[in-house]
Amino acid sequence: MSNDTCLKMSPAAPAAGHAATTFQIVSTVFFTFLCYLTIGLPLAVLPSFVHVDLAYSSVIAGLAISVQYLATLLSRPYAGRTADAWGPKRTVLCGLVSCGASGLLVAAAGTAASLPWLSLTLLVGSRFALGFGESWVSTGAIMWGIGQVGPSHTARVISWNGIATYGALALGAPLGVALNSGFGLEALGAAIAAAGVAGLLLARTKRPTPVVHGERLAFSAVLGRVMPFGLGLALGSIGFGSISTFITLYYASHQWQNAALALTAFGLCFMGVRLAFGSSIGRFGGYRVAVVSFAVEALGLTLLWLAPSALSALLAAALAGAGFSLVFPSLGVAAVNLVPAQNRGAALGAYSVFLDVALGVTGPVAGLIVSHFGYAEVYLCAAGAALAAVVLTLWMARRA
User: Fold this and answer.
1) Which sequence ranges are marked TM in the entry (predicted)?
2) CATH assignment, 21-399
């Protein structure tokens, strides 16, 4: 037997192939990391800035933050179509430009703080730009990764993309608070713009993937196919929307410190579960993993509702992050595989629309709940939504 043959049969060869595939995936979803860093940096700062510094109500604060999710919702279908028709690389480049522009608007809002109406207008504009950038970068990066390593690795690409997403949020939230405390909102906006520019320069150097040609399904047809999975995703996403939008004000209402650490704990547990249990979807099936994930998330949100201290709230947020971790990939792989290859970008966009709707609605609705009942009850309602997702997933599993 030749040495070449021995090398081919060695177990090191599959390991090397696995490592190379992982590197390709990570180097692509790094653009998602930079995109969500631009989202995480202002995440724990802007609600308090609107509510305290600009003296607007909690409802207005929720609406101002949720504008980003509305923009993501409106642009998501076009992001999927663009990724299918233009290629993922161009989609990512356009999104990174928009992320950088949002930082400039945040800096301008800080400069105009003495005119609350102007500052709020600039912030709303920054949230629109950031929402557009989010949809195009996240959709494009996933499709770019799948194009690099092949559709058989779709679950791995989606999982690593989520790790990049919530890793960036976990890092960005406390970093944004530190920048704002030390240097002001103008410096925070400059950091957001710098992250967008860095991503743009790096993305230009990476090779594109070929566009898959073929008949394009109407977006409405794609949306109909993925709707049951998307509804489950939406119900599970309400908890994340509630934590990301109101956790700082929830802490402030109890006079607790370090609210940004709750976002960090959420993100770290999200990443840890993705890394440790990401393969469980292939072993146990997406439905079982989704049911367990929703149940754990509901428990975390319930404990957050009942939290008597900042530490217990942090641990509850961490548990909610662990539960939410595998929701997107456990239902998303099946959703994307419902359509031909040339429509996968549209399917991913349609599936993600339900996440955007949930996050967009959560802000203002939670603001109304706060105005009538209080901050804690927001998390009780979110826990109820996660339990409803358990029921829906069990129904889908029975149908399947």
Assistant:
1) 21-42, 54-71, 92-118, 124-146, 158-177, 183-205, 226-252, 258-277, 289-307, 313-336, 348-370, 376-397
2) 1.20.1250.20
